[in-house]
Every structure is written in C-alpha cells, then in structure tokens.
Design brief:
By secondary structure, this protein is α+β, with helices and mostly antiparallel strands. 42% of the residues lie in helices and 28% in strands. A 3-stranded antiparallel beta sheet has the order 1-3-2. Strand 2 and strand 3 form a beta hairpin. The longest helix has 12 residues.
Length: 71
C-alpha cells in the first residue's frame, strides 16, 4: 500500500486525519503533499484549521483533512 492509499483509507475509516496522526500511525511525514496528490487525482478533500493546546500549554493551530462525500 502506498502513502496515498494509506491516507485515503485512514480518512475513510476515521473521518479525518492530521499531520500528527499521519506521522504516528502511517509514517507519513508530508501529509499536505499526499493530500495535494489525492486532490489532483480527483478526491474531494477539505482541510480545516483546528486549535489545541500543546504540551507547553500554548494554543497551536494545525490542519485536519477530511473527504467530502458527494450527495
């Protein structure tokens, strides 16, 4: 299974993926590039900025991607 297939499968099974999840669970270090290539292949993927506190207590923003299903 290649990175595009792994990321697509992860989003289908879990609803969304962040760069930390991609790295920790799939070994993908450049999630934005994989998402770019999936979009180029015709997948309707949307990124949203999510905010959370890091281990030092600072609020940080990061992208979370999910597939938009056509109706």
């Amino acid at each position: 299974m290649n990175q595009k297939q792994a990321v697509l499968k992860y989003m289908e099974e879990n609803g969304s993926i962040s760069s930390m999840q991609a790295f920790a669970e799939l070994g993908v270090t450049r999630l934005a590039d994989v998402v770019f290539r999936l979009k180029k292949d015709g997948h309707n993927i949307v990124g949203e900025t999510t905010y959370s506190k890091n281990r030092y207590g600072y609020t940080v923003g990061f992208s979370k991607y999910h597939i938009v299903k056509s109706k």
